Amino acid sequence: MRAHKFGVSYANSRHANRRVIALALLLAWIGVPAAHAEGSVRGLWVLCEGSQRVLEHPERVDRLLADAHAMGVTDLFVQVYRGGRAWFDSTLADPAPHAATFREGERDALEVLIARAHEAGLRVHAWVNVLSLAGYADGPLVRDLGREAVAVDQHGRSILDYPEFEVPQPDRAHYRMGTPAVWLDPAAPGVAERLTQTLAELVRGYPGLDGLHLDYIRYPDILPYSPGTRFGVGLSFGYGEASRLRFQRETGLAAPQGESLRNANRWDDWRRAKLTQLVATIGRASRAVKPGLRISAAVIADRERAYLVDFQDWASWLDDGLLDFAVPMLYTRDATLLRHGVEALSGLGKRRELWVGLGSWLFSNQPEQAMAQLEQVERIGGLGSALFSWDWITEHPALLEALSPAVAAPAPAVPPTAELD
Fold it and tell me: Which of 327, 328, 348, 377 has the smallest set of CB atoms within 10 Å of its CB?
């Protein structure tokens, strides 16, 4: 993310922003945002390390809520776990980010944000990056579980030994990491247990949470994509010694390694099952702490790619009740691809709850196109939506205005007890 010059962005739109705040106050007064009244749902991702860092700046909470209401948002996905670090009170993750968040009396920033959002009629989901540690290779999880927790490719190379977490030579001439990062192996000893305990700790500490939103809940992928191990091309992960031994113990078969393709299909099925088990375990533990907690995941929109490449069988996660809803990330500038994707998701959405994730940041210079994409999703019907991300949108006032019809509308009547200043 680029640095945000707060004064420039908001000083020039102070009058419009007052109207947004007035609208937010009115909506809070009646108890529900406009999108709720229409029965639709719209999410907004809020970054923990974006330009705004709302959990570190109490004065930005009002702005977030006002912007959310102006855009018809019903649900906030607030990032609180990234790189193995916690923006919540934790004994299992790196607590340094939490120490930098603001406090109001006995309540920390996340508690304050949840309470304020609820007062404004918004739901809050804790957004967590599950299997990606970003560039943090020395956090508590890896220190406690060891190198074996990190994903290993079929040639026995740990991502910890990849230069800058990118594919090493000579493979780099042909392949790139889809997302360079330290990736955990969900089948490695202790990984699923530690992640489950950490997220249960989060839910236990913040009973006001409405949901838990899982991100990076997949195996890492390589560009170009290879649809499964059986073709013997590309790179794939999860080949740590402990994981291969576990596969042999559980199936009675030898795991492929190096150039070997033996039992390739069973190996892919097994890794897919391990990821599914992780989702199930996290959901079960979190719902035990708070029954009724909504579990969701940001997922690869192309279902075939998700299943074959990333081992992310998200449609089955929905069918089996492991997720309450999924947010396929349909990030594209191409109107035709968006239409095809939305139509495909609409068919799935007749039996499953789906919110279409839109890459609004792609249209900083064409803000009207961001709104056109949102309208295209809503024309199909039966689908929710989610906008990525608040930090980027609020950095670009024209984008915020395009996504906020209320910004240009006359200021509504405000309840007598509400004050703007």
Answer: 348
Specify whether the CB–CB gap between 202 and 80 falls below 8 A.
yes
Angstrom distance (rounded) from CA 156 to CA 19: 58
| pTM for the predicted model, two decimal places | 0.88
Using CA atoms, how far residue 337 sits from 6, 330, 366, in Å, is 34, 9, 18
Domains of the chain (ranges plus CATH)? 6-408 (3.20.20.80)
User: DSSP states of 127-151 as a string?
Assistant: EEE-SB-TT--SSHHHHHH-GGGB-
Say how far apart CA 192 and CA 200 lie, in whole Å. Answer: 12
> Could you give the C-alpha distances from 356 to 76, 222, 376, in angstroms and in order?
14, 24, 11
How does DSSP assign 309-339, residue by residue? TS---HHHHHHTTS-SEEEEE---S-HHHHH
* Band of residue 379 on the pLDDT scale cut at 50, 70, 90: confident
CA distance 106 to 51: 27
